[in-house]
Amino acid sequence: MIAVTLKEVSKKFDQVIGVDNVNIRIQPGEFFTFLGPSGCGKTTTLRMIAGFYYPSSGRILFGEQDMTFVPPNKRNTGMVFQNYALFPHMTVFENVAFGLKVRKLSKPEIQKRVERALEQVRLPGMGSRRIDQLSGGQQQRVALARALVIEPGILLLDEPLSNLDAKLREETRSEIKRLQLELGITTIYVTHDQAEAMAMSDRIMVMEGGRIQQIGTPIEIYNRPANRFVASFIGETNLLEGVVEEVSDQEITVRVGGELRLVGLKSNVNPHVNLALGEKVVLSIRPEAFHDGVGQKENVIQGTVILSEFTGVSVNYLVQSGDHSLRAMFINTGTDIRSRGEKISLAVAKDSIFVVD
Ligand code: ATP
């Protein structure tokens, strides 16, 4: 198990800054995900760790060893690419054995290791099949076996599930996670899919514009988004602009339009936010943080149902309240489902309001 450290790593392509001053320390054995929209710099960061790109500045360490300018084949990393990059005319065995032949291992050793890798990815006995005779999901497993067979210290996965259909993607996601836990291998995973990142990762680095927006566990990222971008990129959220009206020891009151005031906890305010009276702030409230506000006095928003979607597990509402369009998700209890045009009151607990900006 190897730690991976990036120190002030940047990558410039002519005029474009692909990655801007990234600092991370990935723990030995950790499942660490780079998450962000297209063009945010996640693949470029992964490629610098793999050695396909060298940084324009900064250093990359594996353990204590400086790897910044070490070529890819000398890094002890196994990589799975989005398109798998398998040799279509060769057999499964030949594909998986490729890296071992390059490393000039003996024939019996190659045989043993390839068989073990195919067992690990649950493709035992498939060695003689040709790649073009396999399904997409099976090809994905061969790519994973090929990365693992060299017994790398670090496994790098670049959107490995994006070519699979939804059901297979979920199955394969669990498989990869199981294998990673079994092998205890330090794993760096790139995806733009927040659900995938949340389900698999020990920690996530959210990126945008080449920069780190937040690093944290899935729970931290979801429940305590560092800023507006993270709050809206991870899951759904309501962002409400308001003005700080009162600040006490524990609480803050924000006027979010008209007479509507919301009271939150100071412990849910991001440290960089200025809480001076009259300051403009942005609140984040998740749809599932709302509940029925009938009979409640504090933190209740009155509105009208614009859309009502019944999903079985929940009822999802789009609610208009003054200038605000809000999304609310109520767990389906089988009663009192509101339809379009009906009045609704949404209540939110103080500890479910986050001041993100
Ligand atoms: P995607 O999910 O679409 O692959 P990404 O988050 O992985 O996106 P990167 O591929 O890392 O993003 O790209 C980051 C930025 O660097 C983008 O603006 C991209 O256009 C630019 N970039 C990446 N590779 C190159 C290159 N070889 N030459 C020039 N610009 C590049």
Automatic annotation (TrEMBL):
A molecular function (GO) term: ATP binding
- Please write the reaction equations for the catalytic activity of this protein: ATP + H2O + polyamine-[polyamine-binding protein]Side 1 = ADP + phosphate + polyamineSide 2 + [polyamine-binding protein]Side 1
Q: What is this protein for, i.e. what is its function?
A: Part of the ABC transporter complex PotABCD involved in spermidine/putrescine import. Responsible for energy coupling to the transport system.
Query: What does the record give as EC number?
Result: 7.6.2.11
| Subunit organization | The complex is composed of two ATP-binding proteins (PotA), two transmembrane proteins (PotB and PotC) and a solute-binding protein (PotD).
Q: What class of enzyme is it?
A: translocase
Q: Which InterPro entries match?
A: AAA+_ATPase, ABC_SmlMolc_Importer, ABC_transporter-like_ATP-bd, ABC_transporter-like_CS, Mo/tungstate-bd_C_term_dom, P-loop_NTPase, PotA-like, Transp-assoc_OB_typ2
What's the name of the protein? Spermidine/putrescine import ATP-binding protein PotA
Source organism per entry reads: Effusibacillus consociatus
